[in-house]
């Protein structure tokens, strides 16, 4: 205790005076060094990016560089209606960085005509956010020469706020315009009085349009991207947790055309308790966007949509309506009444899962149609709509990123995400029904994979027994003992099937589930070297059952898990129970695919943990298969005494008890890694059709089954 | 003292440093966010209420606009060019009487339609019209080209410029440009179901792209997929292959002409030949000689079976036969046909089954196919098999898929989600009229509920056997209600024996044997327990079968197992009730199945099948097994050892089971069914399911299903 202090006191006298000074000096020095270093590093980071091209800066949004468009400068060619991905998109610009879509955004500029009048209104918040989202996304590049996609930074979101001809001239003047090739024009409010075209009227030549409110006549499939009309109301809107939905239908739009308005009034008269028609508040402030009125009643908008089950989205002057997103945000199922409307992200999103479509001529029948929707379906539609909204439409950023993802899928079609990625919530990466409902072919048989350490005697017995099963095609011995080499080939039992020994590098349990190339069959029989009590009939029948359930573990020793209420945790159970939830891989058939999954896709640290503890690899496998397939295992035939049939001494008992505790711990540990209990219990097992029937033995296919 | 000072100083400096670090950071970030938020917070929104309010469509042009457009038949949409009112009675199809000679393939199509459930003989009730004129081949150079089609069309009684007509076509255009739209007649408002369509030519949500299929394509049934194995990782010899002709010159020749660049003879085999047509020698280029040599070294079929990916490049037209051939072989198609709308692309999500590539980037193909992971290859290959078996393997399936796509466009017929179309068992056997929610179908992973409805078919009246059965059913804790199907020939007893039974029993009149599968409104549970009146099951057996069924709601789970076999001497299928080591039928005399199959039985099966059952007053249970196996492609499930499920003591009265003709009749039924289905859908199983502790040497008290142990066979 005292010795170290004495040592420490020795130099004290010599440096006594200067200690404080040095200490302060040192502290200050290190402080200044850190400050300089941080500032230097942060500036360095910026300069690295700026090395060749300047990254997009949006800070100058209020005072961008002014660029004048000459009065007679050429405008872009008219939008080419017959453009498609193959004739107007230059694929050779893409692929500069492997399979990554690179997007360039032109610097912000204020385009003015010769009279210094800007060609568009001030840049809108939404367009600013679009540019910001692109610049912040992984697709962004500041190098226009490696870019595949170009985004003009001229705000074209709302056609009412721009001058068509001048904007086209401005587009044409862009540095890399090249007749609009690979350019993407964002737009949400197309058309104008009186025709209200369904596509933005600016001539954009070969450019693609990411636009809202396309009709199926103007949307160029595989080329344009259909967007939703973003609603500024939703910026600060938050849905209440619970709200009673008293109204069957709510119509909230203020821009419905008069014919539909008449229809709605008619419907309201027939179904006064089902339909609520909201309009602008003439007696308040009709220009207040956050309220809507039904007669004298004033409601907050869009909160009022939370009281409806269905919300109408009716074509107004334009096809696309912001009420679609408002309804979805409020958890109100959109009922789209707009013939020929191309829905947002058409082609990837399956809208049948989230919306109801009613033809314009059927508007009067809408209440009947909607009343026929079952309750379960209503819940499904609402849940899916909410999910879609949260994933794709929640913010301008989400919408922009989805647009770029769709573009990326087009440019790299071999990497395109499928229906499940876009439309199935909680897509786990693996299709639950990995295997088609088929009976696996018999011809190839199965490969027996034996994990062994040094029990040669029982191993040899096992091999000679296995060979009696006609469907066995190969024996694979996993030699897990590094201290000892496997016996010479001459010492192995002579069998008429190929036998292969694999020496492992480390004594790990997971070696038994490695998908060795030597396993050439679909089915593998995973078996311990001491399981010598299985008969050939049992093995053959087990394989037959596996063929009928190729996506499950099919085997002999079964266990179950039970919830222990006293200790509030799972318990491992090996007693004679009426149900089973695990089949131990000490003697079980399973598809080689599960071995691959065990090796590559085991969640958390389960695999390492099993290897460290040298236990529970079979439980881990059962968890994995049950979690991925959602199906329980199949136990084959009656219960057997598996371990050590002849020994009954009491010493085993305490070892057994420890074993059970350890196994219970495994179950609890794994279920916490999965976050749930994937195991499923069943009350049945598989037997041969004529099992224990009073029937001539000669006529039974599997006789030697079920003895202890 | 000194130490104290020193530590104090150290502490202060540390605190200062910490403050600088954390505080400074906060200061900096605050400054940053303020600076960043400023610009866009102040910006105006792109849309104000004003605009929404004033941008009203004052002229109410919308619909009229569309109608104006509809004069231009190139821009047809369902809303403008289709008469929905004709289809109010449902989706029915009328076929004009056959005029002229029609090709065997078109004859097949018409056969399929006239024998289908869509067919109507009454043109006034028809929703769609199909021509009796062969329009499959519209290449004027072809022998099967029908001349003077425009004038023949005009003579048709209901033509009406093609409204509600469906026109099938496989080939259009001719040498040298093979223009897709040149059909040599005016389509008018007719819907075109055509092969090799381009995405940019077809009228979206109106025309339908179908696959190119050959004369040998089977009318119904069809060959199963050739890749039933799920080897992992894939063990094919070649990564990608192609063998076909190339055209040297003209439309669509560039892609195939360039393929030899990719050929390496090892894992990539791309061989072409210039030999085709009469004058290939005049047209050949410098590479033809070598190409022809290599071409002869490989066999097409062998390549197909031994390759993981198969190139499907465009020919003169966009589609080719090899697309279906590759699909069937489980050789993942790599599509090299820019703009081709793959068959039924509206509903089938091809991204799950094929690799799309770009003709412009031909040389990337080796890299692309090599980059696909093993797990993905397995998924793709399984999807090819699924799609082939459910939508493409026979003319019937292709035509029905066209019809179902069209039917979904009628708003009152119900729509299926994309996941129904793209996962087993597919859309052709998923009827939207059963439910609008996927959860209620047997194929979903949802809980099928924990109660069942028992349906007892009674022909004998209120007997003691029936009473005993009612009693054991009523004792089940899973029972929802019992429906007694009372044969109308027998009067209802005034004071039935079952009055004392504590379960809700509904008596329903049944006329005819198929009536037991009629979808009753009374049935609300997913599970249906179908029973013959003389079935002898105890409560434990019923409960156990139900718990098993809940794990296999898509299958028939029950007791009486039967088998089918091929009788080589008679060249026909046989039916046996002998005890065998396997089974393929579980009779509905004592079995659980999903209520959905009642709807399918009534709605999906063709009238020929219903007639067969009605005439023989027999075989309805076999037909149900055919149907379920056809839908699921899985065998039924037999539970526990009970084999005799009929009480033989009452059988003497009127039971058909003692009738020797009975078996012959069932055999005949079976062969009729096979003919109508076009194949034998029944599948065999080698196992039955027993309770976990069945006949185990453990105390009976431990067992849950004790009564089952006592049943002798």
TrEMBL record, chain A:
Annotated ranges, domain Exostosin GT47: 99-372
GO process annotations (BP): heparan sulfate proteoglycan biosynthetic process
Topology of this chain in the membrane: Single-pass type II membrane protein
Localization terms from the record: Endoplasmic reticulum membrane; Golgi apparatus membrane
Family annotation (Pfam families): Exostosin_GT47, Glyco_transf_64
InterPro entries linked to this entry: Exostosin (IPR004263), Exostosin_GT47 (IPR040911), GT64_dom (IPR015338), Nucleotide-diphossugar_trans (IPR029044)
Name of the featured protein: Exostosin-2
Enzyme Commission code(s) on record: 2.4.1.224
Start and end residues of each Glycosyl transferase domain: 446-691
Organism (species): Neodiprion lecontei
Major site of localization recorded for this protein: endoplasmic reticulum
A cellular component annotation (GO) from this entry: endoplasmic reticulum membrane
SUPFAM superfamilies with a match to the protein in the record: Nucleotide-diphospho-sugar transferases
Family label: Belongs to the glycosyltransferase 47 family.
Cofactor or coenzyme needed: Mn(2+)
Keywords: Disulfide bond, Endoplasmic reticulum, Glycoprotein, Glycosyltransferase, Golgi apparatus, Manganese, Membrane, Metal-binding, Signal-anchor, Transferase, Transmembrane, Transmembrane helix
Molecular function, one GO term: metal ion binding
Recorded metabolic or biological pathway in which this protein acts: Protein modification; protein glycosylation
Superkingdom, taxonomy of origin: Eukaryota
Residues annotated as transmembrane: 21-41
Upper classification of the organism: Eukaryota, Metazoa, Ecdysozoa, Arthropoda, Hexapoda
TrEMBL record, chain B:
Residues of the Glycosyl transferase domain: 452-694
Ranges of residues in domain Exostosin GT47: 89-372
Its membrane topology: Single-pass type II membrane protein
Pfam families xref list: Exostosin_GT47, Glyco_transf_64
This protein's UniProt keywords: Disulfide bond, Endoplasmic reticulum, Glycoprotein, Glycosyltransferase, Membrane, Signal-anchor, Transferase, Transmembrane, Transmembrane helix
Keyword Glycoprotein applies: yes
UniProt main location, coarse: endoplasmic reticulum
Gene3D superfamilies on file: Spore Coat Polysaccharide Biosynthesis Protein SpsA, Chain A
Pathway: Protein modification; protein glycosylation
Subcellular location as annotated: Endoplasmic reticulum membrane
InterPro entries: Exostosin, Exostosin_GT47, GT64_dom, Nucleotide-diphossugar_trans
Top-level taxon of origin: Eukaryota
Family recorded in the similarity comment: Belongs to the glycosyltransferase 47 family.
PANTHER family, A to Z: ACETYLGLUCOSAMINYLTRANSFERASE (PTHR48261), EXOSTOSIN GLYCOSYLTRANSFERASE 1 (PTHR48261:SF3)
Protein name in UniProt: Exostosin-1
Name of the gene this protein is made from: LOC107220093
